[in-house]
Task: inverse folding
C-alpha cells in the first residue's frame, strides 16, 4: 500500500495540519498495550536509509541525554544481522516500508530483539516483518519528502519520549509554529535565492539533534535543486572541512559555536544562512532565521520547514522542476521499479530523460 502522492508545494502547504494529526495518532498508538515492549526498551538501535536515517539523529540525541544507550546505523550496515550491537529493540524507519536495505536489516535482527517498524503507511513489506508497527496514518507525501520526513521526526520524538518515560510532549502547537516559520522563511529566502542559485555547492553544518537537519538539507539540495551538497558536524567542519569554501552556500544550524562560524564564513564573502534561536545580526552575506525557543525535536521540524522553502525557491530559480529526478534505481525498493522512477522519466528535462530508465 502506498500513501497518496502530492506535489512538493502541496506538501509544504498542508504540513502543519498533517503533523498535528500524526502526533495525535502516534501518541495514541504508543500508549496502547501492544507497544509495551517498545516503551520498556533499554537499548534501542535505530536504523534507516536516506532521509529516514537523517531523522534518526533526533531520537538518538534525546535518549543519550536521558542516559539511555542508543545509536543509529545505516540499514545497509546490518543487512546481515545485528551481531555486534548490544540492543534489545531494533527500530527500523521507512516512509513506504519498501526500502530493500531496511527490510533486510529487520529480517536479520538477532533473536530476542523486538523488531519495530515506523512507517508512513501500512501494510508494507517492512511492517509484515515487524513485531510492532507505528505508522503515520497514510498522510499524503511528495516524492522529495515533505510531510513524510517531518512526520517521521514527530513520531520518533514520541517514541523516544515513551522510552525515556517523558510525561508530556511538545507537539500541541506544531501546526501554528510550522505556519509561522514557513511564512518567515518564504520572505527571507526570497532575498537570497538569486545569489544562492548561482552557488556551485553547499555545506550544511550542525551539532546535536540538528544534525538531522544538516543531513536532510544536503539531501534536499541534491534531490530537488541538483546542487552538490554535504553535511558535517560542527566541530568536525572546523577541523579543515570549511577550507574549501568558495562560491558555496552555507547552511548553519545552532546557537553556540555555529554563530561565530556563520559570521566567519559571511565575513569572507560566502553566502550563509544561519538558523538559530539566539540574537544574530544579518549582513550582506549572512541571512538569519530566528527560530522560537522550542524542544530539540520541534526545532528540527521547523528547520526542515525552512530547508523545504529554500529548496523550492532555489529549484525555481535554477529552472529545475521539483518533481523531477535524473536517475531511477530499480534495486532500492522491494517490488517493481519504484513509482518515483516513473515520475523521474516523466518529468525529467530532455537532457536528463535519457538517463532515467523507462518504466
Result:
Amino acid at each position: 500500500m502506498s500513501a497518496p502522492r502530492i506535489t512538493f508545494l502541496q506538501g509544504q502547504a498542508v504540513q502543519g495540519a498533517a503533523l498535528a494529526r500524526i502526533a495525535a495518532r502516534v501518541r495514541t498508538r504508543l500508549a496502547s498495550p501492544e507497544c509495551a515492549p517498545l516503551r520498556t526498551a533499554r537499548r534501542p538501535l535505530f536504523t534507516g536509509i536516506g532521509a529516514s536515517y537523517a531523522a534518526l539523529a533526533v531520537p538518538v540525541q534525546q535518549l543519550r541525554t536521558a542516559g539511555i544507550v542508543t545509536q543509529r546505523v545505516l540499514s545497509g550496515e546490518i543487512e546481515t544481522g545485528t551481531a555486534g550491537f548490544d540492543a534489545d529493540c531494533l527500530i527500523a524507519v521507512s516512509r513506504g516500508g519498501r526500502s530493500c536495505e531496511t527490510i533486510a536489516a529487520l529480517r536479520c535482527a538477532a533473536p530476542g530483539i523486538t523488531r519495530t517498524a515506523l512507517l508512513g503507511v501500512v501494510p508494507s513489506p517492512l511492517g509484515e516483518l515487524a513485531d510492532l508497527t507505528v505508522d503515520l496514518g497514510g498522510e499524503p507525501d511528495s516524492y522529495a519528502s515533505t510531510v513524510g520526513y517531518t512526520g517521521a521526526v514527530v513520531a520518533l520524538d514520541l517514541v523516544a519520549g515513551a522510552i525515556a518515560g517523558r510525561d508530556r510532549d511538545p507537539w500541541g502547537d506544531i501546526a501554528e509554529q510550522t505556519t509561522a516559520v514557513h511564512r518567515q522563511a518564504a520572505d527571507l529566502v526570497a532575498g537570497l535565492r538569486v545569489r544562492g542559485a548561482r552557488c556551485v555547492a553547499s555545506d550544511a553544518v550542525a551539532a546535536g539533534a540538528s544534525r538531522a537537519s544538516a543531513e536532510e538539507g544536503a539531501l534536499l539540495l541534491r534531490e530537488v535543486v541538483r546542487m552538490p551538497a554535504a553535511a558535517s558536524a560542527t566541530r568536525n567542519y572546523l577541523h579543515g572541512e570549511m577550507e574549501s569554501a568558495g562560491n558555496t552556500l552555507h547552511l548553519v544550524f545552532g546557537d553556540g559555536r555555529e554563530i561565530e562560524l556563520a559570521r566567519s564564513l559571511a565575513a569572507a564573502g560566502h553566502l550563509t544562512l544561519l538558523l538559530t534561536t539566539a540574537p544574530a545580526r544579518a549582513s550582506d552575506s549572512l541571512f538569519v532565521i530566528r527560530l522560537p525557543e522550542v524542544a530539540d525535536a520541534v526545532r528540527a521540524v521547523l528547520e526542515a520547514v525552512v530547508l523545504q522553502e529554500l529548496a523550492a525557491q532555489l529549484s525555481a530559480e535554477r529552472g529545475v522542476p521539483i518533481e523531477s529526478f535524473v536517475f531511477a534505481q530499480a534495486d532500492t525498493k522491494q517490488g517493481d521499479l519504484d513509482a518515483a522512477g516513473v515520475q523521474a522519466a516523466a518529468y525529467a528535462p530532455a537532457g536528463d530523460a535519457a538517463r532515467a530508465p523507462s518504466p
In short: The CA atoms of residues 55 and 153 lie 6 Å apart.
